[in-house]
Amino acid sequence: MTRTLLFVPGDRPERFDKALASGADEVICDLEDAVAEAAKPSAREAVASWVRANSGAPVWVRVNNRPDLLDADAAMVRSLVADGVGLAGVVVPKADPEVCATDFGGCPVMALIESAEGVLSVYEVASVPGVVRLALGEADLAADMGMMPSPDGLEMWPVRTRVVVASAGVGLMAPCGPVHMDLNDDAGLTATSESLRRLGFGGRAVIHPRQVAAVNAAFTPSDDEIAWAEAVVATFEAAAAEGREVAVLDGQFIDAPVLRQARSVLARVPDR
After folding, report:
1. The whole model's pTM is what?
2. What is the percentage of the chain residues whose pLDDT exceeds 90?
3. What is the mean pLDDT of the chain?
4. How many CA atoms lie within 13 A of 6 on its CB side?
């Protein structure tokens, strides 16, 4: 499971290698918000060149959603795919069903929900062929909805839950949570990351390498959680071998849903 996705501006190629070496699970080369209009063509070329040189690296490209820019970005992605260049996928901003259905040459799509329209159509977005994960962009969403969320993002909980439900409902991987905008708020970064994990998010986007370690830690099961999950799996499998469909571990009733939860914990252990 991808815990951290580090954004890097597409017009700052000198940062690409550093982002890849930051400890983030994946990198997102951003051709959209982080790049000024005049720099978009050169950024596109820089990203394409670097991705070609690093084929197979865990790299996504965030494209633009304005039709003229999207056409050029999609053509670049199709060219990479046609040449056999390994790319994790494409991040589609302000996602709606139509833009997510853009021809990216079969490249996986991460749909970024960051508008009221995207929230309304999140289930349709999640069901578009090629979409493999949802992500939540709360800065744009708050502006679109006229909201002023508190630091803990409590006002965004209904939207967050909707994104989690949509992901699980159509069988996508757990969604990617929003960035934490305050680079000096380490405690808030950890607290909100842990909150997102409990809600059902699988990781979150980050905007600076210094945020990577805290987010990785928050979305990695603790030793106690791993020990509990391993014990649940072992106990249930022993019961199943005896023909029983339920078991008891330290007074806790274990059935198929508990087993599923335990296995989901183990699935989040890096390199397992």
Report:
1. 0.91
2. 78
3. 94
4. 24
Q: Are the CB atoms for 220 and 269 separated by under 8 Å?
A: yes
The 10s digit of each residue's pLDDT in 55-84 is: 999 999 999 999 999 999 999 999 999 999
Find out whether 268 and 262 touch, Cβ atoms under 8 Å.
Answer: no
Closest CA to 4 of 203, 214, 195: 203
Task: Report which residue type is found at 147.
Answer: M
- Among candidate residues 227, 234, 187, 233, the one with its CA nearest the CA of residue 211: 187
Of 46-55, 142-151, 164-173, 184-193, the one with minimum mean pLDDT is: 142-151
Question: Measured between alpha carbons, how far is 81 from 79 in angstroms, rounded to an integer?
Answer: 5
pLDDT, one tens digit per residue, over 90-106 is: 999 999 999 999 999 99
- Cα–Cα dist 89/107, whole Å: 5
> Cα dist. 16→21, 37, 118, 204 in Å?
9, 20, 30, 19
pLDDT classification of 166: cutoffs 50, 70, 90? very high
- What is the 3-class SS of the chain, one letter each residue? CCCEEEEEECCCHHHHHHHHCCCCCEEEEECCCCCCHHHHHHHHHHHHHHHHHCCCCCEEEECCCCHHHHHHHHHHHHHHHHCCCCCCEEEECCCCHHHHCCCCCCCCEEEEECCHHHHHCHHHHHCCCCEEEEEECHHHHHHHHCCCCCCCCHHHHHHHHHHHHHHHHHCCCCCEECCCCCCCCHHHHHHHHHHHHHHCCCEEEECCHHHHHHHHHHCCCCHHHHHHHHHHHHHHHHHHHCCCCCEEECCEEECHHHHHHHHHHHHCCCCC
